[in-house]
Amino acid sequence: MKNSVEIKNLDLQFGAVKVLQNLNLEIGKGEFLVLLGSSGCGKSTLLNCIAGLLDVSGGQIHINDRNVTWAEPSERGIGMVFQSYALYPQMTVEGNLSFGLKNAKLPKSEIETRIKHASEVLQIEPLLKRKPAALSGGQRQRVAIGRALVRDVDVFLFDEPLSNLDAKLRADLRVEIKRLHHKLQNTMIYVTHDQIEAMTLADRIAIMRGGQIMQLGSPDEIYGRPVNKYVADFIGSPSMNFLDGQVKNGAFQVGDLTIPLDGYDFADSSGSAEGPATIGIRPEHVVTGELVENTPFQIEVEINLIEPTGSDTLVDCEVAGHHFRVRMDGQSKVSVGEKLRLGLAPSKASLFDAKTELRL
Fold first, then answer.
1. Which of 41, 270, 274, 299 has the CA that lies 20 to 30 A from 200?
2. Mean of pLDDT over the chain
3. Strands 312-319 and 305-308
4. Within-domain flag for 360
């Protein structure tokens, strides 16, 4: 697959503070890549570097085989959608969509064609004569996306475009953005701190921390085989359960418990590890009820807290002195203080070195 965007050995410093460090990233043509991480990890900074809104300290940025490291934003062939809608309040929707095209001296007929296409794709035709004050938050964000869409570029950059919206509207617009990508097949780079957005939208996810990419892979790879404890903890809601212990004689020992590691897929070629380690088990991979008997390891716990969420019920308990959460069916009838038998399948667990926190 031909690359649409290539970032080579990128560095960015503000004074003595290193924000991005020797960062390398290749984004394929037509790919939907999500930059995911907590606040301050460098994801929006990287996006702004690609857009040309920040001057880099070192390295190169290539878009469609052209070195644009020092090119102006308008010369990069990108369309950007910001977290704030940044619409001109005195202009109608049509005026907002056409403003940049008029400045670029495009013919009137071409401007009308592009606005018609963008408004049809985003379903905002009835809104063209309205001003932003007469629009809802979701409608304003569609207009902001439309303003990037009319530029007819190969690469779209989204900087947390849904974070100002309520939960239902975020979910609705997430579907619209995914549908838009399927229809246009343009390259899209999307910044978010919301892992649900990342998992549902992305072809690949780049998890960032401290100005570096921790892991780059498909949503399945990130979720199923996190490369380190940080990625494992960051992806998943509720987050992964962690038990600190040690690997000894092909089993994981924590307190008085010995969890067999038969069937565990070790990341290294030796297929074994010895010494202090942390095992990670996702709440949804813990088995309850009749299925417990089919698992290689079972334990009985006491329920400390119950969190019903409708489709699921989250149960809090304690395993070997560690806080432990279990995801159960929403119709499960359990109560605080009740004994619950759990089954664990080590093949679905993640094992991390206690010192390096890398996957074993």
1. 41
2. 90
3. antiparallel
4. no
Residue 268 has pLDDT above 80, yes or no: no
Are residues 173 and 288 both part of a single domain? no
How many domains are contained in the chain?
2
8 A C-beta contact, residue 157 and residue 81: yes
Q: Are residues 58 and 187 in the same domain?
A: yes
Reported pTM: 0.90
pLDDT of 1: 56
CA count, 13 A, side-chain hemisphere, 21: 12
- Give dist(CA 201, CA 195) in Å, integer: 10
- CB atoms under 10 Å from CB of 137, counted, come to 15
User: What's the whole-number mean pLDDT along residues 143-172?
Assistant: 86
DSSP 8-state symbol, 128 = T
- The whole-number pLDDT of residue 249 equals 85
| Same domain? 83 vs 141 | yes
Q: What DSSP designation does 112 have?
A: H
pLDDT for residue 263: 75
Helix crossing, 137-149 with 108-122: angle to 10°?
140
Do residues 265 and 297 share a domain?
yes
Residues 272/344, Cβ–Cβ less than 8 Å: no
- What are the strands, taking DSSP E only, across the chain? 3-14, 17-28, 32-36, 58-63, 66-67, 78-81, 155-159, 187-192, 204-209, 212-217, 241-248, 251-254, 257-260, 275-281, 297-302, 305-308, 312-319, 322-329, 339-344, 350-353
pLDDT in tens, 37-51: 998 899 999 999 999
What is the signed CA dihedral for 62, 63, 64, 65, rounded to 10 degrees?
-10
DSSP summary character for residue 203: S
Q: Are 196 and 237 in contact (CB under 8 A)?
A: yes
Q: List phi, psi (to 5°) of 74.
A: -70, -15
- Is the pLDDT score of 9 beyond 80? yes
Asked whether residue 358 is domain-assigned, the answer is: no
For β-strands 78-81 and 155-159, DSSP reports them as parallel
Catalogue the E-assigned strands of 139-274: 155-159, 187-192, 204-209, 212-217, 241-248, 251-254, 257-260
Same-domain check for residues 111 and 36: yes
Question: pLDDT band at residue 136, thresholds of 50, 70 and 90?
Answer: confident
